[in-house]
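Q: Structure for this?
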Amino acid sequence: MNKEINVTVIGLGGIGSYLCDPLFRYLNFKEDINIKANLIDGDQYESKNLARQNFVNVDSFKSRDKKVELERKFPFVKFENITEYINSDNISNYIGENDYVFICVDNHKTRKIINDYVKQLSDIVVISGGNDYSDGNVQIYIRKNGMDILPSLTDYHPEILNHEDQTPEEMSCEELHNSEPQLIFANLFASTLMVSSFFNIFENSSINNISEIYFDVIQLAASPKIRKVK
Amino acid sequence: MYTHETLNEMTVPELRQIALSMNIAGMSKKRKDVVIDAILAKQGQSSSEVTANVEASADEEKAKKSKLTGVEFNAVSKITNPTGKYGDKAETWCRISSGATSQQFDVAGYTIADVMDFMKEVLNVEKTSDPIVNGEKAKYDYVIQAGDNIEFIKPAGRKG
């Protein structure tokens, strides 16, 4: 009987839209595994996203557009699209025990919502990526048998714990329109490190205690960090 | 030793890297001519600094460790061990990182707070960054030991 795994990608913008292809290309050809994938984003692809994000149809809902594109390429993965923003009320519908969760959102409030929810679960792998203009980081949070194996997203990042930003649902049209600039290569760097981290965990059951990787496009550098669970 | 001609042929990133290796602070955003002048000035000071370090007494070394405003010694020199006898040498290098950036600095004996302002410019470390020493959170009055790995945690990237 095949092993079943659930993969959830939250956020299909700059990082998420690039992460999906190599992730599901890799999983599609894994034998003896049934893969269910949730693609979650409440937003639409707009023409202003063309310069940086990877998608097919302008003015389409991101989750639906990605599902159609990925289903065509990777028939052995069962995709579901969810056109919602993750919040405290709906998160339990989409994340469960033993899931692999990729956080590709653009605000710390959502990262904290997910972080706080998964702390209640016994076994979960969370890989979170974020960037500023040309640099950023990837965090890996693993829980096993009800214990943190790697630090949570907020343990060493008070800016996530005490976030000052809002979710897209809470922002005004003007705020949404005036988003901060990002370099496409920062998004790519983040997505590459996220799927590479997943590969290490999935194939080798080990990430060598690396819980965070910083990267910098301008310096052409990536630096893994080992941090102790608090 | 670099000549003005040699330095002038280099790119600004190369010059800034040389300045960093010579522990010249504050060059990360300076123009090419300013960085060149700083390197040449440092070279002019190097021989006298090394001489001063060799001849310095243990008391002078202790007095020096009050506040770090800049790393004043040659990048390849070793300071005199202030607790040893005259002429003893000791390794005092530590790796300091923030985000994807890291460098080795000769800062053993100083506290985290001492080096914080200096590192802010050299490594672009934010003042509110929490220090981690050898993988564990540390206090600002922690006295840095030789071989320590110090990290000033860079805030997480927010966008995506």
